[in-house]
Amino acid sequence: MIINQYQNYMYNSKLLEEKFIKNSNNNFTLLKDNLFFRNITFQNFQILKMISFLVRDKNWNNYDPKILNYEENFDTSLEYIFDLEYGIDEILKTRNVILFSDNSITLSSEGEFLTDFWTNRIGFNLLIPLQNHVGSNIIVTKGNDLKEEKKFPENIKPDQPFFKFKNLAYTLDDSLLVNINFEGILFEMEDQRNWGDASYKIYSGSLLNPFPYVEKGGSNFSQTVKIDVENKKQRSFPSKNIVKIDHTTSYKFPKIGIKIDSPILPDDNLIKNFDYYYYLIDFTEDFKSVTSSSDKKVFLVALVDHANDPEEELTKIYNFIAENTINLDKILICPKIYLNSFQPAGEWPKVPELNEYYKIAKKIFSNSQIVSGMVTNFTELNRKRPKMFYDLVSFSFTPIVHDSSDFGVLNTPETIPYILKTLKNFSNSTNVHIGPISIGMHFNPYGESLVSNKNKIRLEMADSDPRHDQLFSLTWTLAIFIQSINKESKFFTFNSIYGHHGILNKDNTKRPLYHLNNFLISLTNSEIFKFNPVNEVYGLKIVLNDKKYYLFVNSSKQKKEIIIPEINFSNQYKLNLNNYTDIFNNDFSFFNFKNDTSPYTFEPLEIKFIEDK
Known about the structure:
The chain is mainly beta. The chain is 13% helix and 38% strand. It contains 8 helices and 37 strands. It has a 16-stranded antiparallel beta sheet that branches. It is globular and about 70 Å long.
């Protein structure tokens, strides 16, 4: 569970805007976000996504510090000074100084533990962007001064790429030299693409060391990180506003399903038109048999008890299928204990091999697809990779494990191609189901439970998210969908019918994501082509019933000017913050095309659907 108290509250049913303060000196530009610093660039080249200082308790919760004093000095550089106090019964006081000079960034923290202090981790965190970093060379200096020549990984590693280092040195785009030196403790890097974040994270300490650990009262804390940057040649920045389509590869529009809690379904035309129903049943608990009133295909997600014989567990499932009129199209069998996350190098529970479940399922459910994978995130699938006896691979997706800010969530579509490339590599190009896909979380593998988001704020690890019914959610969902299109991605489940992640209210009135799902269902059987993403704008060409359409989303909160030379944009429907209330009209449709006078302008979070004339 990760709690960030610097969140924005709902007011009059609208989220207050996140407010970042932009500062710059001769070379560096940054966005100050309370105690954090985001989007740090050096001469217009992004070198860091974020700088933060976090103190974890022994349950991995982040302490919310008291700000005892804050100073800033912009005379000759950018200097930020924070006097902070962490804890309630256990107390740590620190003075953190963040200094941006002409060619370096210095992060320093000096503090004192006023009491014994139990913690899992304390210190600075650096988020390294993916662009210009993935696959590039890096020299890692270990604690014993041994230098290792490595690469920022292309495929996503289930464990940490680099352990216990005190210096990193690398060159970006053959022009920018970056040297990062760490003092006070050895650092470690993890690949945050596992959780959908578009970054590598550098943090203090190591997961290889025992945790939690105790710092004695009266002892001191000291940590320094120095980042030196040198530009060895002049760089040119080509235009980022021209989007090009990839005509070489086409895809069949994937099948769209919805998550259900019961096979008794509301009388609604859209609900009847989903290709399949994603139905999770916990077979480790007592549940009531419900006779289905539909012959629609069911994707059954079966949680089983790993302590029982696999054949007995699958026989229980078979009996349920036989006793109820369930049209079993796909089945994912997951030991319930795997709803929890386990460190790659840590101790794992004794569970029968997943292959054993799949092999039995192949015999018992011979007319259904056997699905491997995890009910939770790609992280858990990457740590427990399938081996054999399966037809399909599945994982879910949520963007709020580490960073629930608009900034962080809107960055996550960048990660999707890396996830799918890694998955293709270890699943032998097996077809893929992704879902549920929602901002709010369905399960929390990293804590005892989901965080109850009663105050309706931007919140990590939360059971719900206030942006679910906002334009933000529709734009983010479409960006994830577009980025996920490839040869293997055949099935998508976005939402539930009801509840926190639902498309209908309890009285069956329509919520905004109802219309998005309806729109996607209407594109079934179309042929699609992908545009190469540019400047956080993602797009598809759609050929449906011999007509051509184009779908674009601006997955950012900045206005964009995008030119696609081969397309006439004049006949379009656009959904943005200015007309979002239209979605609540009875006649709302993405096919309500209109002539547009500024067709190449994308408003923040705007969705454009264009008819080719």
